[in-house]
Batch of 2 targets.
Target 1
Amino acid sequence: MSNGDSLGRRLGKTVRAALRKVGAGLYHLGLSHRIVNLSPHRIRALLYHSVESSPGSYTAGLNVNVTPATFDLHMDYVRSHYSVSTIETALDGLGGPCPALITFDDGYFSVEKHAVPILEKYELPATVFLIGSAVNGGVVWVNELNHALNRYPHVVNSILPEFKMLAGLSQAEMIFKVQTTFSPADVKRLLRRLADVIPREHDTLQSADPLFSSADGILAMQGRGVHFGFHTQDHFNLQLCDDASLNVQLNAANVAPLLNSNTFAYPFGYYSREAIRKLTQQGYDQLLTVGSGTRSSSALHTGRTELFGTTTADIFAQLEIEEPAIAMLRRAFRFAKQLFRGSALHPVGIPGSSDLSGGISPLPLESDLPETSKPR
Ligand SMILES: [Zn+2]
């Protein structure tokens, strides 16, 4: 990472922190409804993953969890400020003023157990994006690697000489490195080696709640009004798939009976031109990414905001002040980049839009397409 990158990232974090402070101040002045109503057409798309009281080794440290109490607080806020509808209804402009969407990626069982009852309490619709292999009893590679690193860090270290690019990295950095540089074949090789060296724990998953919802659980949730979209077969980074593995990842045949919406969410928010082409050919009419500002670039895409705030002021500040401001800055930086590119000059010390994500940079592909934020 260059000094420019880390300077840009630090600047991005400072900007975000300042925006959140401003947002929280406006909320405490009692202006939240008035400010929300200033953007009656902007769709606020919320992204969650797991909803557990205390994350287990498969999710702890991935920064994907909100507690049921926090989720309840979020839903109470969302219900009182927005018109929550399904993706299709919101995109058709039929969702009412200040539309909002609630989405969950990955199909964690904790959503079925804790989030769906809260959604029912507030009568809010939501869409869950399913991973084919997870519905069929598998564990997604991100969770498998995370579990190994949480439970057996020394055992994982013992195979790192075979994966030199991962040596010396923290847990989060290692997972990010794999997700942004390992092809599906590389990920499978890493998992095979982990399976060789990690003690078998057949009863760990059986004695506790399952990690992901089963087909039966999903059908029961459908009966309770929950919508389901597709999130690939194995949750690989689509930018690192060759044509054959892309076809496998985008083939929803084995979960087709469980999908009741024509929507797709990219793993980690990463996409490629080829993925877009294949998905539109298959008839998906809405593709969901991670991060704000996406719809300004493509009507087919909707960017989503991950909410972790624990107060209503935090949620308001993120959704209404930070995200719109960052989206605006991204557009301005993209425009400035194009100008510099046109004049063959390179801006020095100007943060790229990814630096404003507050997380880790996306892959340097599809530079003219919207960028993603934190990896999931
Ligand atoms: Zn995911």
Note: The domain at 14-138+206-329 is CATH 3.20.20.370 (TIM Barrel).
Target 2
Amino acid sequence: MERIGFMKVLVILCLICGTGRARAAVHRVNHKAVYNHTLATILVEYASAVYMSDLTQLFTWTCARCDGLTKGFDVIELIVDVQNCLQAYVGVSTNLNAVVIAFRGTQERSIQNWIEDLYWKQFEMSYPGMPDAMVHHGFYTAYHNTTIRPGILSAIETSKALYGDIKIIVTGHSMGGAMAALCALDLVINLNKKDVQVMTFGQPRVGNAVFASYYKQALPNTIRVVNDHDVVPHLPPYYSIFPHKTYQHFPREVWLYNIGVGSLVYPVEKVCDGSGEDPSCSRSVVGNSISDHLVYYGVELGCDIAMSCGIVMDPHVKKLGTMDERGNLVLLKNPAISVLKLNATDDATRSSI
Ligand SMILES: *[C@@H]1O[C@H](CO)[C@@H](O)[C@H](O)[C@H]1NC(C)=O
Ligand SMILES: *[C@@H]1O[C@H](CO)[C@@H](O)[C@H](O)[C@H]1NC(C)=O
Ligand SMILES: *[C@@H]1O[C@H](CO)[C@@H](O)[C@H](O)[C@H]1NC(C)=O
């Protein structure tokens, strides 16, 4: 009996999710995004670490979330836009042989307020150089109109000088995922970077259908992971009756959910279709969970301390970086000595950086 039940679950699982079919389809067109579970579990740790508020620990990659699968990461630059409450870093993972860029999600107010704003307040603007493409004004300016973009671009040049022209992987969670997408697009379109890959977690919609279609062409190697009933990927809302007026996701979604009967529960990772709005993926359920938004692959995504826009500046931080008149901070590794590993407990090393 037990065995038959088990087989039934497997059959149902295959019928409902069809992951096998979807994966096969993805593999046939090999320049498209291929979902790699191992890579996802690594990148989610990068997206989690960028939330850490102790800047010295983050810069020296000694924070509590800087261990595990990301151990040995070489941070090139940490950018903290205090004015706009944004945080991002650029570094090199020798394991992945890639530059990794990670963006923090929103810390400005309570997540509930932010989600409500995303539902009701949809200020859009034209995406420059793409006729009819509209994007969310808040996400666009967070990347393009703050200290974040110049910081990222200079760090990419530094990384190139130190490690050569290696692949670039851009990641982020929540609003950080939206910024990651806009950053990757910027790198491909304006900086002519060739090998750019994107993986985001719990990302909101960024723009309209025209934007999604431009994005898809520029960045075929993009995976948007959505966890179960996470509310944020459902926002700003999608109205299928106004296909040209509505916000629309770009592909390719990977939807994580559980299927189960009684005590037998199986996690499923469904690779969705190339439309960006696969009706059989997360759109088949109601997005009503904040807790599903805050944990992906068992990794916590959110600030480590309960504090609005929490940034911990210890006296060493000023030695590590430069601060502008508005209090925004850039911690930049000096290319000349960057091959030396920072010693987190050694003041002499720090002050020479
Ligand atoms: C998936 O990613 C991991 C980590 O980058 C890599 O080692 C592995 O070869 C990849 N698997 C495939 C099938 O590409
Ligand atoms: C960027 O910031 C400047 C100055 O704060 C402002 O005048 C401009 O309108 C902003 N651009 C966008 C696209 O919001
Ligand atoms: C860091 O510096 C301390 C004190 O100078 C030293 O004891 C320790 O071994 C160093 N750690 C590394 C990893 O070099």
Note: Residues 37-338 form a domain with the Rossmann fold fold (CATH 3.40.50.1820).
